[in-house]
Design goal:
The complex is a heterodimer of chains A (367) and B (489).
Chain A (H helix, E strand, L loop, with lengths): L1 H20 L10 E4 H15 L3 E5 L15 H5 L4 E3 L4 H13 L3 E5 L10 H9 L1 H4 L9 E5 L15 H5 L5 E3 L4 H13 L4 E5 L7 E4 L1 H4 L11 E4 L4 E5 L2 H15 L4 E5 L2 E3 L3 H11 L2 E4 L8 H13 L8 E3 L10 H7 L3 H11 L11
Parallel strand pairs in A: 2-3, 2-4, 4-5, 5-7, 6-7, 10-11, 10-13, 13-14
Antiparallel strand pairs in A: 1-8, 6-12, 9-11
Chain B lengths: L1 H21 L10 H9 L22 H24 L8 E4 L2 E4 L38 H26 L13 H9 L6 E3 L5 H6 L4 H9 L32 H14 L6 E6 L6 H13 L3 E7 L2 E2 L2 E2 H4 L6 H6 L3 E6 L3 H17 L4 E6 L18 H10 L2 H11 L5 H24 L6 H4 L8 H16 L11
Parallel strand pairs in B: 3-4, 4-5, 5-9, 8-9
Antiparallel strand pairs in B: 1-2, 6-7
Helix pairs in contact in B: 1-3, 2-3, 4-5, 4-14, 4-15, 5-12, 7-15, 8-9
Classes of the chains: A alpha/beta (367), B alpha/beta (489).
Chain lengths: 367, 489
Amino acid sequence: MLGVVRKKMLGQSLLKIRPAVSMLRSYSSAAKQMTVRDALNSALDEEMSADQKVFLMGEEVGEYQGAYKISKGLLEKYGPERVLDTPITEAGFAGIAVGAAYHGLKPVVEFMTFNFSMQAIDHIINSAAKSNYMSAGQMSVPIVFRGPNGAAAGVGAQHSQCYAAWYASCPGLKVLTPYSSEDARGLLKAAIRDPDPVVFLENELLYGESFSVSDEVLDSSFCLPIGKAKIERVGRDVTITAFSKMVGHALKAAEILEKDGIDAEVINLRSIRPLDRSTINASVRKTNRLITVEEGFPQHGVGAEICASVVEESFAYLDAPVERIAGADVPMPYAANLERLAVPQVEDIVRAVKRACYRSVPLAAAA
Amino acid sequence: MANWCRISSRTISNHVKTRVNQGLPWGAVGINQTSGLSSALNPGGPVSDGNWRYQNRLPVPRNRATLFCNQRFESTVAEKQRDSFLSSESDDDHQSVDFPGGKVSYISKMNFISESSQTRVPCYRVLDDDGELITDSDFQQVSKEVAVKMYSNMVSLQIMDTIFYEAQRQGRISFYLTSAGEEAINIASAAALTEQDIILPQYREPGVLLWRGFSLQEFADQCLGNKADYGKGRQMPIHYGSRKHNFFTISSPIATQLPQAAGIAYSLKMDNKKACVVSYIGDGGTSEGDFHAGLNFAAVVEAPVIFFCRNNGWAISTNVSEQFRSDGIVVKGRAYGIRSIRVDGNDALAVYSAVSAAREMAINEQRPILIEALTYRVGHHSTSDDSTKYRQLDEIVYWKNARDPVNRFRNWVQNCGWWSEQQETQLRNSVRKQLLEAIQVAEKTEKPPLSEMFSDVYDYPPTNLEEQENHLRETVRRHPDDYPADISV
């Protein structure tokens, strides 16, 4: 009971914080604007309409319209058999959803945040990810686990962890990290249609951000391929890889760097597993310098994997050591000033790029 | 104020009339002031002895005028009470209260519900310890054909366990786990189901697969992990799985199959299928969080699933007295709003009847059912365990001999004239021979090829795995001396 209150209030307090952080971002005044929230909602709506086996399940997804309003209007449209409000048991409803998937339904399971998915992680890994392999193809699990991931604003350590590296290390899962509305629509549709279990990591602070979308994106058959990264900004001098919210930071850093004559290439990974190693390596072979950016903890993070991949495949092309920018190696502090210091900022990316280009004083030897 | 006084006087007289007509305890002999006040201020109300409880009442004003005003003030409350009195249970004469979740009657005596009831929930059985039918028992009759098939399967299961266990001891397979003592649960529960019913086992239910036609060779192939294994050699022994038999692959983490079963049952419900899900769990597994989630959820979504708990007294070395403090598992059903029964797990006919009835209810009424089968784990937990280290040998021997479900059922089948000593010997010899052959054949069968190492991770092989596989093939090709000759690619 308390848990429900806690989570409800959380959702509401975050909704209040959101307007202060969201920024309107438009690349073309002619194209339509769509928030990430609406992108996800429309994707869910269209996939549920197209396939009767798709159904949504999670805490507050029905009557409450979704803790972050992602599932707004869906209960009304599809009824309680296809939009299920669950009791508070992540382990329970993840298990039930996996069972339903074993029998051919296509559940979309919402975790209020991926921090709570830790209570269900046995079902995600041992019941979902490994089942197709361990049953030798007899039990497939066409399930999607989605929800906000990573830091929000002022929510403390147990609500701010990024799980990209955790889930991406497990074979059998696919892990997607949308950034823009186009990503959100295309990747969620792809995830729902995919016969394998997919972990879909959204970002709460991005829900309210608007992006321009073309007519192609708005079409109900639109779908993005899983495992392909997108080059958001073409450049010559340095490659910056990022995913989710950090893509926005990387793009801003690139604008700042342009004034200093550094032309940065920004890669939006979109897919952490499978990782688009060929796009990353092709880019590094062109620019010869690499900075990886992520919100999560540095050790065993996504950047570590990218760095290893580049060293393995493109070592001779590197003109500078690869640098990883990640969250601070501490549980996320609550105080606003400390929280800001614990998460990568645009300035961190700018400084790191300059170091990679030997345009600044090198870092002192690591303590 | 004046108007209000008039109205309330009428209300009081109506109040009195109605109560007189209802013949309520405090009757028409004037509502004496004290009881009138009590009734208004202390809804603890009348109790069965007809007396008011006088605790917690306000001090009664002595001045008649103020008294009358107080009564008038309270009469609007009394009017509401009258309405609730008229609608409450008349046998208790208690008022009831609305809360989210519905009306409950209340009580002013403070009673804690006892942690255990005076008597344990009784256990349903049909055959006595000697296999004689108990008079006047309810049970589902079985035909000779079914009875003989049940008995033969129980014997086969027993022999299969013995031989595979020995094979592990000889180093021919890496691991095994027996169902000794639980043959009736395995076979009789399976016999009461149809092939469309979906099974989510724990790990001590291979008899269910045996009943459905999984051959001794197929069992051996899985234990030896060869290329004929439906699991493609990816799992340790006894982790059987067969889609065509509607038997979901055994998964090691305990109790995860319970919420999954609720999910599958929900899927059957959405498809309107005339089938149910049967999920098995041991006494130990009921301590897992998934037990709570699975049962609770199944009850809430009204899913057609049978939760079958094999309470065999031991979870490796943890005795049931250390596992829970409830009267077994059956009492937990009511906590979730699930209909439940406790059955003698060593009585094949009782298990058969209970599961048959449960299946009808689950499908026709679209509800979950909980069955607790009391039994005893005669064998060790697995080949990695020596249970004499934590329990008395006498106890094991007693259950193995005096309470053997196979002997018990054989007596009944023989008394029906459907089985003979000769058939017994023939069957046992035949099964033993088949098993020994099956193991030999399984041992000689090739192991799965290299291509099966990388398949099924995803629905469609991703490029990185294709690269890894090619890399490995290249390495094997270039260094054949480093790799066993019998690895087929």
